[in-house]
Amino acid sequence: METTRDNGGHNYMADFLITESISAGNGVVLLKMTPADSNMQLSEMNICPGQFVQVQTPDNATFLRRPISICYVDNSTNQLWLLVRDAGNGSRAIMHAPVNSVLNIILPLGNGFGMENCGSTPLLIGGGVGTAPLLMLGAKLKEKGIQPTFLIGARTRDAILLEEELKACGETCISTDDGSYGEQGVVTQNSVLSRQFTSIYCCGPLPMMKAVAKIAADKNIYCEVSLENVMGCGIGACLCCVEKTVDGNLCVCKDGPVFNINQLLWHN
Question: Right CATH number for 115-226 from 3.90.1150.10, 3.90.420.10, 3.40.50.1970, 3.40.50.80?
């Protein structure tokens, strides 16, 4: 099933077969899945880094679908990767879905990262499951001949996600609150920020994104953040994810989830 998006792209509603379920630690699972219809090719969907999906919970465990960032699309295997955190009954049902089971998914949704302004030295900053969309972004930048640098933060070493996958795309710097791995402290205290970067892309807890946005503004660095407002419909109809911006109230699911920091009232 296919529907038109306002931005000229298309949404697809399709069943996906779970081919791998990998524990990433700390209540997080990496699901790898492929379309149940072998004729459906992810490479033809124009999926952009920073977009998300809406997943129907197994056995309709919850009424509403759950929004999950697209972590990566492997065109060579026609696989979609989703990093799922236990955040309640819905996400818990999804992350515990067994291999060879089927999930119904609507994709791709929202507007992703704008790579045209990244320059030659982009810095990608992630915290927790906010690391997920940065993997695909880093991979796309690498394909364009641009070497990204990653800065990943977590409370402790066991909570660092996707480290090996990120390292395959670029230099990966780590910050942990307890100092068990990488540099001790929050990401905004990491020494990598003393370097010169042409752009910053960030996704994670709101306090972290606000702190990163301030650094970017102080240094006059182009910066985009991916918001994680609570969503309902995923298409801009229910208005539960509205964010106040300089352009008025915008739906994070439809107009975002990625925004230039200069659009956001909490930054301005």
Answer: 3.40.50.80
pTM of the model: 0.94
Q: Are 217 and 211 in contact (CB under 8 A)?
A: no
Contact 148, 165 (CB under 8 A): no
Q: What is the pLDDT of residue 8?
A: 47
Instruction: State CA 147 to chain mean position distance.
Output: 19
pLDDT in tens, 150-206: 999 999 999 999 999 999 999 999 999 999 999 999 999 999 999 999 999 999 999
| Tokens coding 111 | 């507007």
Task: Please report, for the chain, the start and end positions of each structural domain, with discontinuous segments joined by +.
Answer: 2-109, 115-226
Distance CA 132, CA 64 (A): 22
Query: Rounded to an integer, what distance in angstroms lies between the CA atom of residue 74 and that of residue 72?
Result: 6
Task: List beta partners, residue 111.
Answer: 257
Are the C-beta atoms of residues 266 and 210 closer than 8 Å to each other?
Answer: yes
Q: Give 243-254 pLDDT, tens digit per residue.
A: 999 999 999 999
CATH level 2 (architecture), domain 2-109: Beta Barrel (2.40)
pLDDT, tens digit (0-9, with 9 covering 90-100), for 67-88:
999 999 999 999 999 999 998 9
Looking at residue 2, what is its pLDDT? 40
Kindly report, residue by residue over 91-104, the tens digit of the pLDDT.
Answer: 999 999 999 999 99
Alpha carbon distance 261, 93 (integer Å)? 34
Cα separation of 19 and 39, whole Å? 17
| CA–CA gap between residue 267 and residue 209 (Å, rounded) | 10
Query: Beta-strand (E) ranges in the chain?
Result: 2-4, 10-25, 28-35, 52-55, 66-74, 79-85, 102-109, 122-127, 149-154, 171-176, 183-184, 199-203, 222-226, 242-245, 248-251, 258-260
